[in-house]
Write a structure and sequence with these properties.
- The chain is of the alpha/beta class.
- The protein is built from eight helices and eight strands, in the order αβαβαββαβαβαβαβα.
- The protein has a single domain, classed as TIM Barrel.
- It has an eight-stranded parallel β-sheet with strand order 7-6-5-4-3-2-1-8.
- α1 crosses α2 and α1 packs parallel to α7.
């Protein structure tokens, strides 16, 4: 059974309270942390309730699901992020529809996104996904490839890279997770100090329902929260 609007609102408030505590521990105001409601498998009505409760953006993992819910007006009132694996044949359904694509994982995707954006007369905001755990089954660039892909992006019209995103290995002990978060923060700080065209480093998107407090304490300023808002899938 889906959570009712009161429960979703209460969950958003609870998450905001935890975000605030973690932000203060990291020496930042709570308002610096963006809350993205990860709404995979959740119906349009639940998404509307989360937006009404004040989430900063909504994140979808699947293009077809996103397209269906967008047609229902599910995302009205909040920016829409694509946070799942993006296949090249789905680019036309995402570019210009999503305010941000968080999961850009290769130079070829940057090239195709840029071309599609130019054809639409827009600039598409993206984050570069980093495979910080070096997991062979996951998409994302390796940490040492970050400078190379930013150089490539700097010469690609139609895109603006606004930062980095990561999904550390699941089922890790908290201490190991924090090591991954710390490594991502170091990478984020490193690239923030460099100048590239088409790159304006603002967001470090990491941390989900089971780890967002630790991610924020480590340096994240954008968290993607699903079950802690909507309940289990």
């Amino acid at each position: 059974m889906e959570n009712d609007s009161n429960t979703i609102a209460e969950n958003v408030k609870r998450v905001r309270d935890i975000i605030a505590q973690a932000a203060l521990k990291s020496g930042r105001p709570p308002g610096d942390i963006a809350l993205v409601a990860a709404s995979k498998t959740k119906p349009a009505d639940s998404i509307r309730k989360a937006i009404a409760a004040g989430v900063d953006a909504v994140g979808e993992n699947r293009v077809q699901e996103m397209t269906e819910k967008n047609a229902l007006g599910a995302y009205h009132g909040a920016p829409l992020h694509f946070i799942g694996h993006l296949q090249s044949n789905k680019i036309s359904k995402v570019v210009g529809i999503c305010d941000m694509i968080e999961s850009v994982s290769s130079a070829s995707l940057i090239d195709m996104i840029g071309k599609r954006a130019v054809s639409l007369g827009i600039v598409q905001n993206v984050l570069i996904e980093v495979n910080i755990g070096r997991e062979p089954q996951k998409s994302g660039i390796l940490p040492e490839q970050t400078a190379e892909i930013l150089e490539f992006a700097s010469g690609t019209a139609g895109i603006m890279v606004l930062g980095l995103m990561a999904v550390p290995p699941i089922n890790e002990e908290k201490e190991m997770l924090c090591n991954y978060f710390d490594a991502m923060t170091k990478l984020f700080v490193d690239i923030s100090g460099k100048k590239y065209d088409n790159v304006s480093v603002q967001f470090l998107s990491m941390g989900m329902s089971d780890s967002y407090a630790e991610a924020i304490i480590a340096g994240s300023n954008m968290v993607r929260i699903g079950s802690a808002i909507f309940g289990s899938r």
